[in-house]
Amino acid sequence: MPLPWMDREEELKRLDRALGARDPALVVIYGRRRCGKSRLVLEALGERLGVYFVGDEREGTLQRQSLAAAMDRVIPGFASVDYPSWESLLVRWGNEAPRRAVLALDEFPYLAASGPELSSLLQKLIDDPKRWRSHLILCGSSQRMMHGLVLDASAPLYGRAREILKIEPLLPGWLHTAFPRHRTRELIEAHAVWGGVPRYWELAVEFDSVREAVRELVLDPLGVLFEEPTRLLLDEMQEIVQASSVLSLIGAGCHRLSEIAGRLQKPSTALSGPLRRLVDMGLVRRDVPFGTGERDNKRSRYVIGDPFLAFWFRFVPPNRSLLAARQIDLVAAEIEKELPTFLGHVWEELARRSVSAFEVAGRRWRPAAPWWGTGVDKRALEIDIVAESVDRKALLIGEAKLRVGARDWPGLTKDVLDKVSRFPFAEGREIIPSVWFAEGAKPPTGWVAVDGAQVFEGLR
Length: 460
What we know:
5-stranded parallel beta sheet
């Protein structure tokens, strides 16, 4: 079931502006697969005169025939000619296409693989206004390939784009639009599994519950998302064994570089590059405690930054043999036991992400971070949320809990105040204690508390 149009208004406005320009414009659109790049292009094309073509893995001869057939709808008779090269096809399009028509080449890396000269050829054509009169959209899922073909300083088309749009996953707050009947707990579950990838939402909305969708789409070896992480990694890497191994270990709870290296029996230095690549791709996030410099590698923790991959690597690889044997019920039951703890971590991250989205206690806050280390009493201390006010005069310190009952509040507030008293950075600043609870009873009077509805509303 197609989802309603969501959260791409700024990108669409920029694309419309570029395609409405008098002079030919190059627009580059990239980002991970299934995030809505193609739909954005089609929305922008609308009733405009143009060609939308999706590249594939066929030989260049066959792709040119298909592209010529699409161009024939704009230039009658275009497909009646055989084009022995990309140059012969694109030169004719450049000369004969109506001014301000649009040529949209989706999955451009596939086209470039069949014709390595494509980027240089397009560069020469669009640099010459006498040979090129149409707008050009280049779109691709492989960020590695798009950088090499278009975005890197050494790429032939570098510096020629009027707009470069990286399409990110949707913000969690839009889940309610896709799943309007879900309550807060179900929205957290949906985010924990599907993240912000609209195609995953589109697949999941056909099912009555998150659990049913997980069983059919993710756990069943016949499910369309069972091998999705492999496809994602292959988009970006020629060899994925090491990346898959690192993600599996992080998913299993190894968060420090030394732990990961030890489990793989490799020196830490051998993993710095692969981890940095995963961080650059947005698949892994490197966390450091609040107040710690970004270069402090000793206190870093690595976590899987994409919710779908975090769920998949936590539960699928350890159970692959059982799933292959169709023991799906057994695996689903094990997931159910571990789900509260898993969701607790997901809720903590949602709460942190929302801190800077709205006013809390009458102030605006900088992005939040967790904190872990030794308290002023020399005992180990962990805090879910620490944020500095925009004016740097106050600190927000908070705990995130999935559910807080009426009887839980006294102990929880006491626990938060105890952590505040032990926090090393507290002296000399106003401290705002807080609780971020997904659902449950109202907090005591005078306490700063943010519930799940506020968090999801802020994250959109």
